[in-house]
Design goal:
Structural class: alpha+beta
Largest sheet: 9 strands, antiparallel
Number of strands: 34
Number of helices: 21
Shape: globular
Radius of gyration: 31 Å
Oligomer: single chain
Distance between the termini: 21 Å
Strand content: 15-25%
Length: 877
């Protein structure tokens, strides 16, 4: 990966830039006496002194014929020479008279601060060109230029290293001319001296030398997913792999060699231009095959090369899915600087009319050239649901782009197709994350006067809630609509999906219900596998086994238990045109980045969560020994009033969608909308360590509404469906006696993702707010009500040393997302997720339960909601 960047004052990266470049004079070959290719001493007296910060794309430099000087675009020379540490963009002065398309063969290539350069002499005009494609074959490097002269005659490249000018032999040919011609006659040479830190291995790129790379450069590989690799490389100045003309599309595509084709497996089997449906087994397998290729890369540079090479040949969203996954899984690459998902797959989060408006404004800006930024705002209630539809009241939450991004990242981090055992307790993570998702959605429904979502259990009854997503993929694919009262029907097999039958789901449900009632699963060989959440060392948690069977992950018997969760998503996704009589497009339910937007998602997962709840009720209540510990919770304090409101947030959309109607323009597109948010707060917990030695406390905090939709106080049993995790963390050790534990809400274990930031990035453009697999910080608190909504806050202290996994494992990282687990590590808690509020109890109320144990406390909190939006935050890149 070869590119250099600079940052604008606000930290936003922009066009490539040359740093600390020292330019010298032009030489005529006659004055130096070149007779054959090679190197000669360069007399110091002939070198011009001085250096300046030039830049922003070496293609902007050219030689004026009248005086032989390096010139810059009009009115830019002084500004660039005196600009100091920050470059500013200039116009592409060569674009008007240079055309792409020529191929040249050179034996060596020079890198200018990471950018490979060749010096061109075309039609009497001298110019620098940036190499767009670079690949070595034997002793010859094949180069495709981003911009080459109209009539290529000579190519001259001089490298100044240690007071020598090196002039390697080169071979030149034009496109269509299969007979290469050798040229040793050189008219002029541009000599450039570099600071050594910007050059690989002495300044000459060979087959064995490596080009510089960084995480920020890796982020470019995610940009413009619906455009060709050639467009991406040209826009962000990336080094292109070899290309050829596609026999199917007629456009330039990268070349896959036979070995790479074989390694990709099914990755190329999913057509481009359709949604990537991770619930569909062929799509999931294709993503796994591509992920394996990325994980096999030796280092980041090879990963970047592979990504650019395969990009033209795989489904666009599948490519993004696998590339994010590779960065998460690889310990040698930091994910801290990766772009936020909404800036890459913008089309999955933003209504079509908003994107179309931005396109119109960009077109106008390109014509009038009066701005370099287009800003479009859309309101949270500009959803496809009319105000007379009651579901519109909670559309702000379902369609929150941070929530949908989280759901996408979770399924990328914990795909059901992952190798068994690679993600500890993955089936339980599936249950627990979706339980919290459904519980928190019902918080919002209660806050706006709606009943909790009714589980969708009668699969022969109509789906009452219709949904029109008003979304269009960047390649023009429009997501399908579902009318009110649509029946979920069998779906015939198509090129995108297999045939799906409701009767199969009903049979699988019967099998799994039987196993839950009998407290054992039936393996493929007929043996019985015990279901218990009090496992012995080496035994799997029962909820983990049930979760894997429900989602068809590492199921002990996939034919017998089927794929209830995934096939349900697919059936609901295709019910708008089940017979494909109208060639209807899929709905949003089968894609993890869009499914949460649909109201039926929460009805379907209400059924799934109810199924898990049925299993949980087969487990015995926790015993006093499992709940007690030698510490007392004396007091829990939070602010008497917690407040939520809507806040404007802005993000860059022009990295995900190519808005540019003119390749020479560089107009940024910013999108702004309002999102639910809250004031930060602090937990103050006073505890008493009754032991005679220090104790390392583990703090568990949960939240649930106090009353139901009929204003009736919720019992212990009814609250089990509502408890949502707020935080689980290990505090500093406390000595015997009274201590105080303080915790900021912004430090919550469900919203922090330090575990994925394996490397500290000191770049000023580093995006420390990259969300990854973490619950959105803005949705930590439920909305509440204008006149206040009462919630119960439950706090429990346990002994962290006694909570370690039964079969060992390392301490948890300082912060990790309890919903997502830890790649390559044991889940750092021996207890079932949701402990101790995941099982039945002999107590009738949560107050009675907490009063029975000194290490527990439950308090009331009131959440108030204000409608006025707060001040806008900085754009998210």
């Amino acid at each position: 990966m070869v590119v250099s960047t600079y940052s604008q004052p606000n930290g936003t990266p922009d066009a490539p830039c040359v740093s600390r470049l020292v330019l010298f004079k032009w030489y005529d070959t006659d004055s130096i006496g070149f007779l054959t290719p090679g190197s000669v001493d360069a007399p110091a007296s002939q070198l011009e002194s001085g250096s300046f910060h030039a830049a922003c794309d070496p293609r902007h430099l050219y030689r004026e014929q009248n005086n032989g000087k390096i010139a810059l675009p009009a009115n830019q020379e002084l500004e660039l020479i005196t600009s100091g540490d920050t470059c500013k963009p200039v116009y592409r002065i060569l674009s008007s008279y240079l055309n792409p398309g020529f191929l040249i063969h050179v034996s060596e290539v020079l890198y200018l601060s990471g950018l490979p350069l060749v010096f061109l002499q075309t039609c009497g005009m001298n110019a620098l060109a940036v190499v767009g494609t670079l690949v070595s074959k034997g002793s010859v490097t094949i180069v495709r230029l981003l911009q080459v002269g109209l009539s290529l005659q000579h190519v001259t490249l001089a490298i100044f290293i240690e007071n020598k000018i090196s002039l390697p032999l080169r071979q030149v040919r034009e496109v269509g001319n299969e007979t290469p011609q050798w040229y040793i006659s050189y008219i002029s040479i541009l000599v450039i001296k570099f600071h050594s830190e910007y050059l690989p291995s002495g300044g000459v790129y060979t087959e064995t030398s490596s080009s510089p790379s960084s995480d920020y450069q890796l982020s470019y590989l995610f940009y413009l997913p619906y455009e060709s690799t050639e467009v991406l490389a040209n826009r962000y100045y990336l080094t292109m792999p070899p290309v050829e003309v596609s026999s199917t599309t007629g456009s330039y595509v990268t070349i896959l060699d036979d070995d790479l084709k074989a390694r990709l497996g099914t990755a190329t089997s999913i057509p481009r231009g359709i949604p990537f449906m991770v619930c569909h087994e062929p799509h999931a397998q294709a993503a796994k095959d591509l992920l394996d290729v990325f994980l096999d890369a030796e280092d980041e540079s090879e990963l970047a090369e592979l990504a650019l090479t395969v990009r033209d040949h795989v489904n666009e969203a599948l490519y993004i899915f696998a590339l994010y996954g590779a960065v998460y899984e690889r310990p040698d690459i930091s994910s801290a600087d990766l772009p936020r998902l909404e800036t890459v797959l913008t089309d999955q989060f933003v209504p079509t009319d908003v994107i179309n408006k931005a396109k119109r404004l960009v077109k106008a800006a390109s014509i009038h050239q009066d701005t370099d930024t287009v800003h479009v705002y859309w309101q949270r209630n500009s959803t496809g649901l009319a105000t007379r539809n009651s579901e519109q009241r909670v559309a702000y939450w379902r369609e929150d782009l941070h929530l949908n991004s989280f759901h996408w990242h979770w399924h990328k981090t914990n795909p059901f197709s992952i190798e068994p055992g690679k993600r500890d307790r993955r089936g339980e993570l599936f249950y627990y994350m979706h339980h919290n998702l459904v519980a928190r959605y019902n918080f919002e429904r209660l806050g706006v006067g709606l009943k909790p979502a009714e589980p969708f259990e009668d699969w022969r009854a109509p789906v009452q809630e219709g949904y029109f997503p008003h979304l269009t993929l960047g390649n023009g694919y429009e997501w399908g609509n579902r009318q009110d009262n649509t029946l979920m029907q069998d779906v015939i097999g198509t090129g995108m999906t297999d045939a799906l039958y409701i009767s199969n789901l009903e049979l699988w449900r019967t099998h799994l219900l039987y196993s839950v009632d009998e407290k054992y699963l039936i393996s493929e060989n007929g043996s019985q596998i015990r279901l218990t959440d009090d496992p012995s060392p080496g035994e799997q948690y029962g909820i983990d086994l049930v979760g894997e069977a429900m989602e068809a992950g590492a199921s002990v018997n996939p034919l017998y238990y089927g794929s209830i969760h995934n096939k349900g998503h697919m059936l609901l996704d295709g019910c708008n045109d089940p017979d494909q009589k109208h060639m209807g497009h899929n709905g949003v339910m089968a894609a993890t980045g869009t499914a949460v937007r649909d109201p039926v998602f929460f009805r379907w997962h209400g059924f799934v969560d109810k199924f898990f709840h049925k299993y949980k009720m087969t487990q015995p209540p926790y015993t006093p020994d499992q709940l007690s510990v030698g510490v007392e919770v004396l007091e829990v304090k939070t602010p008497n009033e917690l407040h939520t409101f809507f806040t404007n947030r802005t993000f860059v959309a022009s990295h995900g969608i190519d808005f540019q109607v003119d390749p020479k323009s560089n107009i940024s597109v910013l999108l702004t909308s309002d999102f639910l948010n809250h004031t930060d707060f602090t937990y103050h917990i006073k505890v008493n360590n009754t032991k005679t030695v220090d104790l390392k406390p583990k703090v568990r905090i949960f939240l649930a509404p106090k009353v139901d939709e009929e204003e009736q106080q919720l019992t212990y049993a009814s609250l089990l469906r509502y408890w949502a995790e707020m935080d689980v963390f290990e505090a500093d050790p406390i000595a015997p006696g009274v201590s105080n534990i303080t915790r900021l809400s912004s430090e919550s274990s469900i919203t922090s993702n330090d575990v994925y930031q394996r490397t500290n990035i000191s770049s000023p453009s580093a995006n420390a707010n990259f969300p990854g697999c973490q619950w959105p910080q803005n949705l930590l608190l439920p909305r509440g009500k204008p006149d206040g909504m009462a919630f119960r806050l439950f706090v429990m202290i346990t002994d962290a040393d006694q909570d370690k996994p039964l079969d060992g494992g390392n301490d948890p990282p300082p912060s990790f997302c309890t919903f997502c687990g830890i790649p390559g590590a044991r889940y750092p808690d021996r207890w079932p997720m949701g402990y101790p509020l995941d099982r039945k109890s002999t107590y009738g109320t949560i107050d009675d339960f907490a009063d029975a144990y000194s290490n527990m406390e439950v308090v009331d909190v009131i959440i108030y909601h204000a409608e006025e939006p707060e001040e806008e935050e900085h754009p998210e890149n």
